[in-house]
Amino acid sequence: MTKEEIIKAIWNELPNLTVNEARRIYETTLNVVKDRLSKGENVELRGFGNFIIRDKNPRIGRNPRTGEEAEISKRKVVTFRPSKIFREMVGNSE
After folding, report:
1. Phi, psi at residue 42, to the nearest 5°?
2. CA–CA separation, 84 and 75 (whole Å)
3. Number of domains present in the structure of the chain
4. Model pTM?
5. Cα(93)–Cα(82) distance, rounded to whole angstroms?
6. Using CA atoms, how far apart are residues 26 and 11, in angstroms rounded to an integer?
7. What's the pLDDT tens digit per position in 31-52?
8. What SS3 class is residue 52?
9. In which order are the strands placed within the sheet that holds 43-45?
């Protein structure tokens, strides 16, 4: 699903909105999530899942093209853990 498809889905679910208002809702929601994550805060969306900031330790990696070893520096990554409700929903969607 693309950004535009999500915006149209919001617009279809909330017919009192204009497409531009649906776009603003989409953009604002994602900006709030990105802002909180960039500040190191986890984001919990009940019934959907959690976006969690994890620290990754430095390690030795390998360039797949040349095979040369290189150090991968310490960094933070965002992981997503779906909620139990969401996992069951996706698992039963067959």
Report:
1. -80, 155
2. 28
3. 1
4. 0.77
5. 15
6. 10
7. 999 999 999 999 999 999 999 9
8. strand
9. 43-45, 49-56, 75-82
Distance CA 90, CA 28 (A): 26
Domain range enclosing 67 = 3-91
Measured in residues, the chain has a length of 94
In which residue are the tokens 């679910």 written? 13
pLDDT digits (tens, 9 = 90+) for 8-27: 999 999 989 999 999 999 99
Alpha carbons 27 and 75: distance in angstroms, whole number: 27
Backbone φ and ψ for 48, nearest 5 degrees, come out as -115, -60
CATH number of the domain where residue 10 is located? 4.10.520.10
Q: Give every CB contact of residue 21 below 8 A, 6+ residues apart in sequence.
A: none
Alpha-carbon distance of 26 to 12, in angstroms, equals 13
**What is the DSSP code (8-state) at residue 74?**
P
Nearest to 68 by CA among 60, 56, 57: 60
